[in-house]
Design the sequence.
């Protein structure tokens, strides 16, 4: 088993690069285009964080998983709920932040049936006076940020094809970038750009299929030879299998305005049974760099070729300029589900390092010469064969829960999982009278006896600086601040502030439900710094509570329920916004 | 056949004979697919509907059909939520319900035209053929996986066999749109008779493709995990009425294997 390396004598290495300016608002889930989730606000610091008090709350009245980041624009807070995806606007200029309006997109209830892992939504984005977000039934909506009136609504996918939408859009140069979910339902993944003013589709880039569908043309220059060639999105699959080959785009998008490139990861290939789809299954479980104006692909790299374990590559990409081997390189840092933090040259797609951040048994490492992940042969799953001790599990060493970066410490703060799984005997299953079999997947804590960690990570050395184990996977996002306080939440409902340098606990508050949301911070109209988080357990990890699953059935929630069976003893469902400040 | 009058009469007779505990007839609710022949249909002509009626009659219960498509998650949404009391057909040892002992066992079968040689999974003659396979949601049926293991992914033609399209895979063999198909026995047996006399069905053998991929499945009735009494009542009737049930299944052309030598998906006898 590969374990992460711990950096003993860590010397803080303040960041030498530039970050975007900060006006104290929070207009997109990742804060800036580089996806740092870092705020320059510093009223709340390591000394006074212990005095944080609850300022106000707001109930969403919903019982599914709340994964969204609240937005703060012009003294208004915007919250997107899980299905039915209501958008609430709260007036921060009045005491108690009363509701200004609610916008209800009324998605079709049938879309709940096609969401694989609870009916979550990861948030909205603000641009040009409008709030943009996606509803579960594949509509991208633009809502007037002042009035709550719908400006436009565009249907971009089809639930009858198994598609749904859970990701937060990114708005780049007036284009709203959105992608689909549903790799478990045989969809064909895509990223689409909509005109922010009209909602008209400007371009669509599929993950698999012929080059013309993937928007691969003369500008496409992948770093490694295995990603070059004509129509690899067809040839790396059995005939026609790419048409239902998955590769959704349900995670995060970053944007480099100087290079004019967007970066995003693609989800796992379908079907789950890897034996049925021999080949590399391009361009799933990898990362694209594209021109946001035209959608043209500029490079691609595949983290997990011919994915065997549901290692989607949709996790966040932090765009940083870091000293690598004595030279400042424009890099992107990507903690992948497969257990490695990748540092890549974001101009070319070259892998500069791939370091272990959680226990790994399914691969031996990444060959930096060839860029190839080195799978472990005896851990390959075969239907009907018992394979034990697979780490990371299907939700990965880290799922969608986004990390943060502090330029003051030079560290990344990574919320993640610490799990292994067995693929055991087959269990009979059936649909409408026809039986088949599925592997009985059982997940459990990795060695050490805990299910999750919150890890401070040195991206230059590729080492752990400190880590905070948690009983459950840490399924919330992270937030870093200039006060050297880092925030995150736990599945059993604690919202925590820890010291950015040492990891010591500064303050914690027990919210009403498990936390899988993304913390944000902003400057209120009174000049004070506030910290906000949505509590409300659910998502894949918390489905055992939100979905009321039977804790005795370890294979429920695609095998995740086994690792989470005591969660219902710790927390209950129910969505609530909590906002904190110093007295 | 099964008129309200008959139901009244049966209820009356049972009460008269002291089998029913109360004067009020007990209600038994079965979740059934409105649109999935030969298993179940809203006009109650599916074999599962017939078996449900038989069981209810023996229990002296008034049978109510709760019509619900049996797609992904239906157990969680209907049976677990107590919208109904039992389902008629579910694989034995299906995890999220309590199942009776199996009352029949069937197998995936090849559907081919009589003019063709009898197919087998390992026959070199499969190379270059088009082979119809049922596709369920995101998953191939076991024969699809077995073909993929043999490098025959290119041969596979996927068929949706729910509702309106139930007979499409069998019809495609008769119409020569595919060379042969591998289909779950009850579906194949029922439609092969209707589609044409020149079709032949042959069980896929051996019963398990090593490692661990089964082609035969035992089928039971299922109740909520907490409902042991109903499970035991149903089980007793299924044993007593085994030959009647066998006759019903024969009527629908369901290929039946001996239950005694039962090998379920876990490879263990029960």
Sequence:
């Amino acid at each position: 088993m590969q374990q992460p390396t711990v950096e003993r004598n860590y010397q803080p290495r303040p960041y030498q690069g530039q970050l975007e300016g900060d006006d104290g608002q929070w207009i997109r889930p990742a804060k800036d285009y580089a996806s740092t989730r870092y705020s320059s606000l510093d009223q709340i610091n390591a000394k006074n964080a212990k005095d944080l008090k609850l300022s106000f709350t707001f109930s969403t009245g919903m019982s599914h998983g709340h994964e969204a980041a609240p937005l703060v624009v012009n003294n208004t807070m915007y919250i997107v709920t899980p299905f039915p995806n209501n958008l609430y606007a709260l007036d921060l200029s009045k005491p108690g932040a009363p509701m200004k309006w609610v916008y209800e997109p009324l998605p079709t209830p049938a879309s709940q049936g096609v969401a694989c892992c609870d009916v979550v939504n990861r948030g909205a984005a603000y641009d040009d006076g409008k709030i943009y977000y996606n509803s579960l039934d594949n509509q991208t909506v633009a809502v007037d940020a002042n009035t709550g009136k719908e400006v436009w609504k565009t249907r971009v996918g089809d639930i009858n094809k198994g598609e749904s939408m859970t990701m937060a859009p990114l708005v780049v140069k007036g284009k709203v970038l959105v992608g689909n979910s549903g790799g478990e339902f045989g969809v064909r993944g895509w990223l689409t750009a909509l005109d922010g003013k009209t909602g008209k589709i400007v371009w669509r880039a599929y993950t698999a299929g012929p080059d013309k569908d993937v928007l691969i043309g003369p500008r496409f220059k992948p770093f490694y030879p295995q990603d070059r060639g004509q129509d690899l999105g067809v040839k790396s699959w059995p005939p026609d299998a790419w048409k239902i080959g998955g590769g959704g785009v349900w995670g995060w998008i970053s944007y480099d305005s100087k290079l004019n490139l967007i970066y995003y990861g693609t989800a796992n290939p379908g079907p789950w049974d890897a034996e049925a789809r021999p080949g590399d299954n391009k361009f799933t479980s990898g990362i694209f760099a594209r021109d946001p104006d035209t959608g043209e692909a500029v490079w691609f790299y595949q983290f997990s070729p011919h994915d065997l374990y549901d290692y989607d590559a949709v996790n966040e990409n932090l765009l940083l300029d870091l000293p690598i081997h004595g030279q400042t390189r424009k890099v992107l840092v990507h903690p992948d589900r497969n257990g490695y933090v990748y540092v890549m040259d974001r101009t070319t797609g070259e892998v500069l390092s791939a370091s272990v951040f959680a226990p790994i048994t399914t691969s031996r490492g990444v060959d930096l010469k060839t860029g190839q992940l080195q799978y472990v042969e005896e851990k390959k799953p075969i239907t009907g064969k018992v394979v034990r001790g697979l780490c990371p599990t299907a939700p990965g060493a880290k799922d969608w829960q986004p990390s943060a970066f502090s330029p003051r410490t030079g560290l990344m703060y990574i919320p993640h999982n610490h799990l292994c799984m067995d693929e055991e005997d087959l269990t009979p299953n059936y649909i409408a009278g026809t039986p088949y079999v599925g592997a009985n997947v059982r997940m459990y804590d990795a060695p050490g006896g805990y299910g999750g960690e919150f890890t401070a990570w040195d991206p230059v050395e590729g080492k752990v600086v400190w880590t905070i184990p948690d009983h459950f996977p840490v399924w919330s996002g992270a937030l870093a601040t200039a006060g050297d306080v880092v925030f995150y939440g736990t599945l059993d409902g604690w919202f925590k502030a820890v010291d950015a340098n040492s990891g010591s606990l500064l303050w914690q508050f027990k919210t009403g439900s498990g936390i899988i949301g993304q913390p944000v911070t902003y400057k209120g109209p009174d000049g004070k710094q506030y910290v906000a988080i949505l509590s409300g357990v659910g998502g894949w990890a918390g489905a055992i509570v939100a979905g009321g699953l039977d804790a005795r059935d370890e294979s429920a929630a695609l095998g995740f329920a086994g690792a989470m069976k005591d969660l219902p003893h710790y927390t209950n469902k129910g969505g609530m916004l909590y906002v904190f400040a110093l007295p | 056949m099964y008129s309200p009058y008959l139901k009244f009469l049966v209820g009356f007779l049972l009460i008269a004979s002291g089998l029913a505990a109360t004067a009020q007839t007990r209600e038994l609710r079965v979740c059934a697919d409105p649109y999935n022949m030969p298993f179940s249909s809203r006009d109650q002509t599916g074999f599962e509907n017939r078996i449900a009626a038989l069981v209810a009659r023996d229990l002296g219960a008034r049978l109510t059909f709760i019509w619900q498509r049996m797609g992904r998650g239906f157990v969680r949404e209907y049976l677990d939520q107590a919208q109904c009391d039992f389902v008629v057909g579910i694989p034995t040892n299906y995890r999220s319900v309590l199942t009776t002992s199996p009352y029949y066992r069937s197998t995936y079968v090849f559907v081919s035209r009589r003019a063709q040689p009898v197919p087998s999974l390992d026959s070199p003659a499969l190379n270059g053929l088009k082979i119809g396979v049922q596709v369920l949601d995101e998953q191939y049926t076991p024969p699809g996986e077995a073909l993929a293991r043999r490098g025959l992914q290119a041969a596979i033609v996927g068929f949706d066999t729910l509702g309106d399209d139930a007979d499409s895979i069998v019809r495609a063999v008769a119409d020569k749109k595919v060379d042969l198909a591998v289909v779950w026995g009850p579906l194949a047996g029922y439609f092969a008779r209707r589609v044409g006399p020149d079709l032949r069905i042959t069980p896929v053998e051996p019963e398990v493709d090593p490692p661990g991929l089964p082609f035969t499945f035992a089928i039971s009735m299922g109740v909520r995990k907490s409902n042991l009494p109903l499970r035991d009542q149903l089980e007793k009737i299924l044993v007593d009425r085994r030959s009647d049930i066998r006759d019903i299944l024969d009527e629908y052309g369901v290929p039946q294997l001996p239950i005694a030598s039962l090998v379920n998906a876990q490879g263990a006898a029960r």
Notes: Chain A touches chain B through 41 residues (CB under 8 Å). The domain at 19-66+400-583 of chain A is CATH 2.140.10.10 (Methanol Dehydrogenase; Chain A). The first helix of chain A runs from residue 211 to 214.
